[in-house]
Amino acid sequence: MRPQDIRGAVMARSVTSKKLRCAVLAVLGLAATEAALAVAAPVPARAAAARTVDFDAFVRSLWPEARAHGVSRATFDAAFLGVTPDPAVIEKTRSQAEFRKTVGEYLDTAVSEKRIALGKEKYATFSRWLAKAEDRFGVDRYIIMGVWGLETKYGTYTGNDYVIRSLATLAHAGYRGAYFRTELIKALVILQEGHVDPAHMMGSWAGAMGQTQFMPSNFKPYAVDFENHGRRDIWTSVPDAVGSTANFLRKHGWIPGETWGYEVVLPGGGMASPPDHYVPFATWADRGLRRADGGEMPRQGRAALLRPAGAAGPAFLVTPNFKVIKSYNNATSYALGVCLLGDRIAGWGPLKGRWPGATVAQTR
Q: Same domain, yes or no, for 28 and 130?
């Protein structure tokens, strides 16, 4: 063999050897990668399994407390059948937006023409029960409508989360300390008493239930069997829902026969007053305030001046009943939404004043 042939053969063998080594390394690298993936892949699954075991242990830990509150083993097991933690609930606790609407923006939705029209339809259908609730509890029927309309759009949207699962998820996570564990036990008692079955115990992600959006702790003191059918059904019975809302407001201090308040026009130069500074309506009239709708000021009762958007927005005189509505939801915009929605359903006109930045269409 010629020298150049020998050199060529050596070079060929060298190239072949390098290719082989590369191929082997590639195979080994792929195998190592696959092995690493095989080890890594089950980690989320193992974590989920661990969380499930932890959740199951948490559920078992509830049994002695539930039993002490009169919950049977059968009710307890039925309530938790197939229940697992709900990741969507936990996510909602982390994503409560810092976004805040202005009062005008909030009311544009809360007292929309569509909500007013639906409210008038619902009122026509259930006027007998609303009148009965007003007679029994002394709460203005249109305020009941306002609460019902804002809470669940008159029962058309009550939430699609299983209350036991939501509360168990929050309690297991320790969200807000022991609050949701207590609510969970009270929800089990509601099931035990037969007011609703697990399949129909639906509500919000935070456990607010039915057409009234009561938390379980509100159910026992405020829910009523207004329909007289042997159970307090705030989920599917409109009479029970409106009666329970009226009972809640009355027990929080609603003054029968007294208005929530009025939109008012201030004298030139405006006026300032401390929040919740109640003085007689007659005193406000003496100071130059008048009702925006042209009506007379009441001869009885006291009111405080409310200017939720400051000097640039509408002004109101509100009675202590307005503060009672805030016991349902402590936001001023919510309470004002309840009142104005109720007024519109009753046939009163829209506000005369305009919210800062609102268009005429939004205001009217």
A: no
